[in-house]
Amino acid sequence: MFAYAQNIKKEDRFKVWAFNDESKVGFNHVYKTALKDNIKDESLSDTENIKGLITVYLPKKEGKCPLILIVHGYAASKFSVLPLGRILASYGYAAAVFTSRKKEAPKDWIAPLSSTYELLKEKNENPEHKLYGLLDTENVGIAVHSLSGSAALYFADFMPFVKAVTAIHPYNGASGFIERIAGKNEELGDEFSEIRGAVLILTSETDVIAYPEKAYRFFKNLNKNTAACFLSFKNINHNDCLDTYRIEIFGGYHKENFSLYSYLITSWFDSFLKNEKHNLELFKKNGKRFSEIGPLLYTDTKRKHGDYPNYDSRNL
Q1: Model-level pTM?
Q2: Domain range enclosing 217
Q3: pLDDT digits (tens, 9 = 90+) for 272-306
Q4: Which residues pair with 94 in a beta bridge?
Q5: What positions does the domain PET hydrolase/cutinase-like occupy (predicted)?
Q6: Number of structural domains in the chain
């Protein structure tokens, strides 16, 4: 068992209920079925920006919960990231997961992000809705994968209520072939100098879809005063952290890699949305818990990509 798995205490977790939870064959490796305590609410949608219904997971606990928006990548849907939402809810967060109606360029995720946030804020302030008073809409995190990464950073750059972002293999360019399909992220770019939320970037040297040295530019160009951490692992493919079927060059659900990323994402949000700063020992190179992930970082000097570090951080 990996060291990080030993630090997840089941007794610290909450039972979870949901709005619009769904289960789909091929996207049910983590949870085989939808939650039984599940309310269908067709008002949780925006037909202009969102395809289908927003899924919201909540812990069975009293009081407001920090809100986390979870965003899928290119040509994907919410089904690949639903398990992450369910896991985060079990640790005390309200997690909202949606499918973007448009998903061909990074900018396509900005409107759905904004729409989802505003819709949930409206429900949270409506005494007649069952979400009333359950969401802390001024203490927000965003978890994103791939092509939606720059959209989340762009959104957070303008929205001070976004206190933390976890970017999973964020796309900022790749090979010429991939860039002919997904572009080079020219429109949004990689400079987000006003962002105040803490940013965690997870990537891997073996990712052939979102080149890690290009993702590293996100880290370098962030606001120099914000907390940030960049980690590049070995042997983790682009989609290993998703609940999806495996394709050779893209990867797909990988139990240990999914567990690792879920652990890191939860720990990052705990640090900045719950102010549990002891979790930062996991992300500091001289931290007491860095040994849990240090051996998993990429170390081969014969890199496939341009020069970039396997680790970088600031203001932790």
Answers
A1: 0.93
A2: 3-314
A3: 999 999 999 999 999 999 999 999 999 976 677 77
A4: 67
A5: 52-239
A6: 1
